[in-house]
Every structure is written in structure tokens, then in C-alpha cells.
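Q: Hi! First time doing this. I have a protein sequence and I read that you can turn it into a structure. Is that right? Here it is:
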Amino acid sequence: MGLTVLGFGLTYLVGAYRLGQEDYAIVTMRSLVASENNFRLSHPMNGYSCKLGNITNDRALANGKAMNGYTFDVSDCQVQSMNGPYTSFHLRARPKNTKLPMYCADETGLLKADYTESVSTCIKSGEPI
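A: Yes, that's right. Below is the predicted 3D structure, encoded as C-alpha cells:
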């Protein structure tokens, strides 16, 4: 019986730990989307930023260090006209543990979850959060 209780306890703790990692990724992604929008409003000639270092003061996060099981990046910044401001972006929270979902967002601000490694698949068909 003792081993059963111990096994149940460990399963619960692992689940709670993973949930904490996911919560951290969701909160961080929402913060990064808000920061992208603030950057765009503050820098209308540049539009959105394509560098995490411009939208977060967290140097470890900006340099791609895994934080609570996730790494974050910004990509696919697009301009509508040559030398114009960035008008779109893709943010991604990529898990180190493949059992956890990847999170993505774009300039619409809609946060989505997906179990692929593709940010474009996540943006197109990810599950809205």
C-alpha cells in the first residue's frame, strides 16, 4: 500500500509541475504579446519588434535560455512595403518536454496551443487558449 500511495503522490507532483510550466508559458506569452503591441505603438516607424531583447527585460529569456521548461522566440516578422514597419510577427513558447504543448501567438493577440514543432501549424490550426 505504501508504494501505491508513493506512486500516486509522485504522479500528482509531476502533473502539478507540468501544469506550473504550462501556466508560466501562457503568462509569459501574454506578456510578450502585450509588449509587442506596446513596442509597435512606441515605435510606429519600426512597427513590431523582431527581437525579444526589445520587448523584455529578462536577459535569460531574451537570449533563448529555457525558463521553467520553455524557450521563447519571435520570428516571421513581415513588412507590407519595402522599408516599411513590421506589420506582423509570430511568438513561440517551445517546450523542452515533448509531452507539453507549444504555445504560439501572432499580431492578433490570440494565444494557441499545439503539439507540433511548427509555429505556422500552430498559428493556422492550434487550439485557442
